[in-house]
Design brief:
Blueprint: E1 2-8, E2 13-18, H1 21-29, E3 43-46, H2 74-91, E4 94-95, H3 100-108, E5 117-118, H4 123-131, H5 141-144
Parallel strand pairs: 4-5
Antiparallel strand pairs: 1-2, 1-3
């Protein structure tokens, strides 16, 4: 198994696990390697900080009690956490399909009970909803399509 550090054209960084270098190349060529945040298929390998050394290295000096613990990069954790939260919100919402603009208006004008919904709206419908003071959020397709 090979683990590559990858990044899309929008600079979202993520890991990819592949059976071999050839497996990575074939999947990338078929646009199967995609950014989990924005669904971009323009992916590049990035240098990895995971270096394996063939011989033993010198032990690191002992930490003093006042020395802070080293944390993982905040940006990577933040992206992963945002992705988890967005997927949770999507799982807990009702898909109303193309009736989204109508359902959003009904809830906004108290004609229907408030609930978490998702669906499809054209760019024009989205602008009209925002002009009425209805908050809507466009989601990347990767978050809403069935990946199974």
């Amino acid at each position: 198994m090979i683990v590559y550090d990858l990044a899309c054209a929008q600079e979202h960084r993520f890991e990819g696990w592949f059976a071999s270098a050839e497996d990575y190349a074939q999947q990338r060529e078929r646009s199967l390697v995609r950014c989990p945040l924005c669904d971009d298929d323009v992916i590049e390998r990035r240098p990895s900080a995971n270096v394996q050394v063939g011989r033993a290295s010198a032990p690191s000096p002992a930490k003093t009690p006042t020395e802070p613990e080293t944390a993982t990069p905040a940006a990577d954790n933040t992206q992963a956490e945002v992705l988890r939260m967005m997927r949770t919100m999507i799982e807990q919402s009702v898909d109303v399909g193309t009736a989204f603009p109508e359902e959003a208006r009904k809830m906004h004008y108290d004609e229907a009970p408030a609930r978490s919904i998702r669906g499809r709206a054209s760019p024009e419908e989205t602008v009209a909803l925002r002009d009425e003071g209805i908050d809507v959020l466009s989601l990347p397709a990767i978050l809403t399509r069935n990946l199974q």
